[in-house]
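Hi both,

Apologies for the delay on this - the queue was longer than expected. I finally got the zinc ion-bound model through. Below you'll find the protein sequence and the ligand SMILES exactly as submitted, and right after that the structure tokens for the full complex including the ligand.
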Amino acid sequence: MVDAHRLWKGPILDNHFHLNRKGRFLDAAKDFKNVGGTHLVLVHCPDFASPPTSLKEHRETYADTIAMAEEVRVEHNLHVRVVLGPHPAAFAHQFIKWMEEDGEKGIEKACENYRDSIDAALEFVKEGQAHAIGEVGRPHWEVSDEVWDLSNQLLEETMALAAKEGIPLQLHVEGELESTYRDLSEMAARANLPTHRLIRHYSPPQIDESITRGLTSSVLVGKGALEPLLASYEQNQTGFMLETDYMDDPRRPGAVLGPKTVPKRTQQLIEAGMDEEMLWKCHVDIPNALYGEAEE
Ligand SMILES: [Zn+2]
């Protein structure tokens, strides 16, 4: 039953949000805040045209994302967590290019660059300046077996590292339901990583536990997402969060969900009957358990 009088006044977190100094940047964060948003998870976005190729460059580009997070905190008094890592699309393109140029040597160089980018991200997590590694994963488009296998190999290696260091990963993967979750949960088991520490970014809204298999779903809340989410969340035990994957890309305005979407959908969920306890879990308990408490 829809009840337009129910209103959510608690914290509201967007679990996957990008900002771009050449985009709307602080204004986009302000839009989020103006409609009730309180907590952002800012995910590093590489310069796809020229991704970093050395440890020093990885550190520099990450440091800029951390600086952006701080500007948002100071300017808008929002709580901002930071997620850093090598975007799987950028990595795959680099890998293909270097392999074509240099064969075996190129492959080695690409792997080394991937590991450098993970190491640099981990340093910032250990310093408390970042809260998870991501987005990491594998290409969401058709690639050669070689690229696919290497992407999986490196992802599993990163899962083992996350297990050792006790940190969560935000995953960017292909869009299947059953097969993707199954595959990832099996990789986590081999890597000894508790599956809930894998956060599937851009998750489809069907989150029955029989599908998600212990992974945490970060549900992309497009228009059609509410109905399947409402139909399945009671069958989910692990937990979920909501996200826009806001891109802040001035060349593609409106191509993705806008910064106001998670607060708007949160109100729609409570109007549609989702209980407050569930929303508290989604916006507070799950992120606190994964990323660490949100200090006030
Ligand atoms: Zn993203």
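Main takeaway for now: Residues 13-291 form a domain with the TIM Barrel fold (CATH 3.20.20.140).

I'll put the files on the shared drive as well.

H.
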